[in-house]
Amino acid sequence: MSAPTATRPAPAPPDPGAAPSPWRSELRRGLAPWAGAAVLLTLAVTLGTKAAQWQGDWAETHGLLRTVTMLLLGPLVAAAGCRQGGREHRRGTGDLLRQAVRGRRDRALAPLAPLVACVVAAQLLGTAGVYLATWPYSLGGGLTWGHGLLHAADAVFVAGLTAVGFVVGRVVKWRGAALVPALGCYVLLGVSAYVDTPLGRLAPAQEPGLSEEIPALWLAPVIAVWVGGLALAALVGHLARRRLLALVPLLAAALAGTVLVQTGDDAWRTDPRTQRLVCDDGTPQICVTERHRNLLAPAGEALSDLRERLAGVPGLPERFVENRPGHRIRRDGGEVQLPMFTPLGRSVVRGEMTDHAVYAWEAVAALLSPDCPDPSGGELDDVVWTYLAPTYQRNLSDPADALKWAERYEGAKGVAETRAGLKRLDRLRALPEAERAAWLGAYIAAAQRCDLAAQPAL
């Protein structure tokens, strides 16, 4: 009698929980992390090369970020979405996947959702990083809730274009289909951003030309509904069994677009911080807007030598004032325009004055050459200008260079006039302090009145 044979137990079925999740596979081997890295790199390179033009000014940072998001990140994520959507066509796995248990919607959302999450996270992370780079050099002011909500609307814009590109990739079987949404977005968004028409207000990142304006709180939600509704309509129309459902987000987008077109400039208002002044205690006073309050001390330092030379001069304007929207500085109002801080990258870089001598020279220009019909000034302008701003290499500040320049470009007559100017400059410097102050007061008062005939002789 033979021994009974031992039977082996049947192998246990594989645990369905052990299967890797689609998200993990996409994040480890898919396009999503590379697309997120490309978004971060685009923001870093584009804004890094222009750091001197925005770093420190919250409004400039905000405007440039939104422009880059629309014109560069938009085409980039649309191309990435199209590339992801056309993956089944390139691999030839479309028929096989259609026989899978998962439905069409699940098969589409599995590769799309991680891609959207990565590009949106990268856009928000890059935006936060740029603002952190501005914070140490802040000129003053700050962002409002309206500005922050607009960046949230930009995240919806990035997600929506990714989804639209994905739909294009699933519909168009051409391998180079990613070029279609990329070029289309760049042309459409680029043209609409610079067209001053009611339809141009549909551009998601279009802002007014003046950076002194702030958005209304309702603007960002309306933009989000506008761009998100169009993208959702495209996605629902492609994936849903009842494609008429796409009419719901499409109707919402149409209503939001109508609001944007009809509202116009009412969505933006003047920032009150650009109207309020902050002044120091010097003579003449230096006054800047609250938006640039952190530049009050650097401006005072740049003009310290000028104010020292103007000490005791009678009849001076009371203050140098930064120009404000809607306010005209009049020469008979006791104010002189302070040299401009913007655009950044010229007078101001990362919260510091780039050249005190040039800034002082520009302040003297505003003092001696206000809005007169004849801006040429009198024959003693070079003398007074050089005395008040002597460190800037212009006019008579370097006698040898002034004579050389006159000989080269103006001939003997120019040399004679330059020698006469140098003698007058020496005479002005040699005057007793009280007499020089009185003479300067009479000269500046005549210049402020645009009365060249009343300027005193020297």
From TrEMBL:
Keywords of the record: Membrane, Transmembrane, Transmembrane helix
Comp. bias regions, Pro residues: 10-19
Highest taxon listed in the record's lineage: Bacteria
Coiled-coil features, chain-numbered ranges: none
Transmembrane region(s): 31-52, 64-82, 108-133, 145-169, 176-195, 215-237, 244-261
Region (Disordered): 1-25
The protein's name in its UniProt record: ABC transporter permease
Protein source organism: Streptomyces koyangensis
